[in-house]
Amino acid sequence: MANILEKTNLTFEKLGAPSEAGFQALFDELLGVASGELEGVGSTEELETFRVRWVGRNNSVKSRVNENWLRQAPPEMKRWVGSGIKVYFAHIEEMLASAKEALEIIGLANGSDIDLSLPGVTRPIGTRHLISQTYEELYRIFNSIGFSIVEGAEIETPYYNFEALNIPEHHPARDNMDTFYLANAPGYLLRTHTSPMQVRTMEKQKPPVRIVVPGKVYRRDNPDATHSFMFHQLEGLAVDTDITFCDFKGTIEYFAQQFFGPQTRVRLRPSYFPFTEPSAEFDASCHVCGGSGCRTCKYSGWIELFGAGMVDPAVYGFVDYDPKRVSGFAFGLGVDRLAMLKYGIDDLQQFFRNDTRFLRQFP
Ligand code: PHE
Q1: pLDDT digits (tens, 9 = 90+) for 11-62
Q2: Where are the domains of the chain?
Q3: Residue whose CA is closest, atom 7 of ligand 1?
Q4: Whose CA is nearest to atom 2 of ligand 1?
Q5: What atom of ligand 1 comes closest to residue 306's alpha carbon?
Q6: Among 219, 243, 273, 282, which residue has the most ligand 1 atoms within 8 Å of its CB, making it the best to mutate?
Q7: Structural domain 130-359, CATH architecture
Q8: What predicted TM-score, i.e. pTM, was given to this entire model?
Q9: Ligand 1 neighbourhood includes 166 CB (under 6 angstroms)
Q10: Which of 106, 194, 291, 341 supports an S-S bond with 301, CB 3.0-4.6 Å?
Q11: Residue from 156, 166, 192, 195 to probe ligand 1 pocket by mutation (most atoms less than 8 Å from CB)
């Protein structure tokens, strides 16, 4: 049996007078051979040889097919033999054109210092910063029990940052050593906590209040593995006519179990904040060892989470709430600290270095 290229020398009769489908098969076979040959082409010279051989003017495959298959076909078959030729050779021309383009690009690269084997330019897609992700998790948890989100300014007055929170003039937190006062704007400071938004919210809104306040806070700390001049808090405040210590504990417990897992237990330790009474530090059972003691919890089984308490009635006096009618609780979470605990990060500074090798670990 003659191969397909030899068959292009045969006339319609000698081909065995193929039907339409028979011709289709012949064309398919031709196309297969052409693309196979084209794959082996590695230079513009070889490409030119291919072109002349397949679609050139004289004695090319195309001219032979025209001459032998089309011209000699009976009139009623000419139409579809002709359109077959048109379609299939257009395809071959297209393959030729893109091979030419590819070779030109390689030609440009040859002799220059462009290395075509290098991977292309990729545009890396960033990830949400772990602090942002942690905030989102916190919003989800507190939104689910009816807290809404309120934001406030990072520049505050001593009144909102201290006075209205029942922190008197002589309190050590007000010292220049602890607080950034703005040299160019006397009477302003960088808030040391998000608690000023407790007061600002209650000034504007009558009870019930149920808010969380995210944001950056500033303290005059030297950077180390657990300190920074700036960190992130989430303030919480719930005030209504019937809020009890049980609501307080239940809310915190719900938070801890959502954040660290359903097996988490919480405990309260007495503490002191001028704007809560009683005040407490909340601990959670260690999420790493479950309470039996390990390095993360320093073998105590418990992890200190954050400060909180029942709103001190003195604070209501600053916002025109009636301390005999309302009660509530407040808490101030350190978001960086929570993220470090949950994700096992041992250096706070990692959050601020913007080293993508760190950031990428939290997609
Ligand atoms: N504002 C306190 C701090 O930054 C935390 C706190 C908030 C404590 C609310 C009690 C109630 O340390």
Answers
A1: 888 888 888 888 889 999 999 999 999 998 888 889 999 999 999 998 999 9
A2: 2-110, 130-359
A3: 332
A4: 332
A5: 5
A6: 273
A7: 2-Layer Sandwich (3.30)
A8: 0.67
A9: no
A10: 291
A11: 195
Atom of ligand 1 nearest to the CA of 329: 11
How many angstroms does the Cα of residue 289 sit away from the middle of ligand 1? Answer: 28
Task: State if residue 193 touches ligand 1 by the CB under 6 angstroms criterion.
Answer: yes
